[in-house]
Amino acid sequence: MTRSAAREPRPPAEVVSLTTDYGLADGFVAACHGVIARLAPALRVIDVTHLVPPGDVRRGAAVLAQTVPHLPPGVHMAVVDPGVGTSRRGVALGTPEGLLVGPDNGLLLDAAAALGGVTGAVELTNPRWLAPRVSATFHGRDVFAPVAARLALGAPLTDAGPAVDPATLVRLPEPLVRRVPDGFVAEVLTVDHFGNVQLAAPAELLDPLPAQVRVRPVTGDPATDDDPTAVDGWEREAVHGRTFGDAPVGALVAHVDSTGRVALSVNGGHAAELLAVDPGTLLRVRGLGVVGDASGQHG
After folding, report:
1. Where would I find the H helices in the chain?
2. Cα–Cα distance list, 121 to 26, 71, 85, 117, 204 (Å)
3. What is the pTM of this model?
């Protein structure tokens, strides 16, 4: 998106989507809906989720990135913002397949990549686009919702504020993924509502492994940690399958999930509880034979 193109009015968006950690017990979500409805009463709003764990930016980023490619073209507002009211910027990002609005804390960039990459970015500083009085603790209502509504109505991106160099946008640390001689080590990326454990590993790391694999946590250097009983004395067997039912009821299955990442699930159970893992835990998945080597690392 060139600077001149960013100044051009755009056709109105089909939808605004909302992804937050606001929960459903308070009026925060309704307030954001209300601001959007006052400015753009005919606009369709899609609630992706408001149950991101409070302050869990990585989980919010993963949910957003995995969802926006399946939504109609539009404006995607996301708020998981433990730094609200600090010097962190509010931003809007242009992509070939839509716009993203939210805090500059790493929440938006995976979604931007899923929509074709950042083509333009602005900081949200135009006071005419914001609430008359901006709360220090509720930028979802006072900053991001009014900006999302105006952009959805077709206003130029650059009317929201000055341009930002995309290279300066805050990025989350890359999750660890490393190939090892008999499998791979990967960070737990997310745990979903069903207890499925999504790893940061791509499908091609699981594909060569045999029909039975073993899973255990790792605390040391994953390139040299070869003792299968080094952590808490346990290692669990899992079926290398295609879907949950490929394992017996109550058994662990390693498979590729709907986003193309390796996941660990329990047929009829809760894998995160079985494995006692949380996002950020390192897990080693290994087969019985040697596959590849330890030289490859994937982000």
Report:
1. 3-7, 28-39, 57-67, 109-114, 139, 145-152, 203-206, 271-275
2. 31, 21, 20, 11, 33
3. 0.85
